[in-house]
Design goal:
The protein contains twelve helices and ten strands. It is of the alpha/beta class. The chain has two domains: about 150 residues, Rossmann fold (3-Layer(aba) Sandwich); about 110 residues, Rossmann fold (3-Layer(aba) Sandwich), CATH 3.40.50.1860. The strands form two sheets. It has a six-stranded parallel beta sheet with strand order 4-3-1-2-9-10, sandwiched between helices. Strands 6-5-7-8 form a four-stranded parallel beta sheet, sandwiched between helices. Strand 3, helix 3 and strand 4 form a beta-alpha-beta unit. Helix 1 packs across helix 10 and helix 4 packs across helix 6.
């Protein structure tokens, strides 16, 4: 039995969708969630790739120093910009979110027209079209950058008119492209999945990464022989670079779990340590 925790990080609270699925699937494991929520760092999706890579490296180094046994990059922008570099640099196993979603979308599509809603950084990386083409080169992919969604979701109002209007605006090009499957290419977006499903309609399949990632985490732990004993009650803790109280309130509402303690990590110290 290996009682070391699993590290999960994102630019804010979106990665909690992945953490939630891991808690459901692997409740006997311990977790450390890192939300990089400092105003000067959040969100990742509008930043240049080299900046995202630097932030991802700093957080991965910090969590590796806390002796995590597995690291989940629960951020599509960070996965697109930094995952290969992180996997080469760190000995701890790293899992990203793009490949599982691409695989699920190719399996789900009926007309071979797939849409991608993602951040600007993820769209510009073209990682989704590349991953999909490796699986089925005949699939048409339409990408839409959605820069307004993450800040609105992070603010906590997931039913507001401004968010709804933005989501409808971003969905329109995908409807015009007649996609039958849409990848929600940011871990914040599943937090408004019911809204998006209403906008697209029942016939469009929405793809998220959380369930696939949780399965991959379980498979990796088993393959490496570092899982905890089933039946054990796991623990979880939270780190953030922004305001602890604001993070506690938003994350607690989304995760629907008590966040009794949130530890703030100074971004300047994070950079120096890395």
């Amino acid at each position: 039995m290996d009682t070391r925790p699993i590290g999960v990080f994102d630019s804010g609270v979106g990665g909690l969708t992945v953490l939630h699925e891991c808690l459901v699937t692997l409740p006997h494991e311990d977790y450390i969630y890192f939300g990089d929520s400092a105003p000067e760092r959040f969100p990742y999706g509008t930043k240049p790739p080299d900046v995202i890579r630097r932030y991802a490296h700093e957080i991965a180094a910090h969590l590796a120093a806390r002796d995590v046994k597995l690291l989940v990059v629960a951020c599509n922008s960070a996965t697109a910009a930094a995952l290969p570099d992180l996997q080469r640099e760190f000995e701890v196993p790293l899992i990203g979110v793009i490949t599982p979603e691409a695989h699920a979308a190719v399996q789900a599509t009926r007309n071979r027209h797939i849409g991608v809603m993602a951040t600007e950084a993820t769209v510009c990386s073209f990682r989704y079209p590349a991953a999909i083409a490796l699986l089925d080169a005949g699939v048409a992919v339409t990408q839409v950058a959605c820069p307004d969604l993450v800040p609105l979701i992070q603010a906590g109002d997931t039913h507001g008119e401004e968010l709804h209007e933005a989501a409808k605006r971003y969905a329109e090009p995908l409807k015009e492209a007649a996609v039958d499957t849409v990848i929600l290419g940011c871990t914040h977006y599943p937090l408004i999945r019911p809204m998006l499903q209403r906008i697209f309609g029942r016939d469009v399949i929405l793809i998220t990464s959380a369930e696939e990632i949780a399965r991959e985490v379980g498979d990796t732990l088993e393959r490496r022989g570092v899982g905890n004993q089933p039946g054990r009650e796991g623990e979880y803790r939270f780190l953030c670079t922004g305001d602890e109280q604001a993070f506690r309130e938003v994350a607690g509402r989304f995760l629907q779990l008590p966040l009794t303690e949130v530890e703030r990590v100074d971004p300047a110290a994070l950079a120096v340590a890395a």
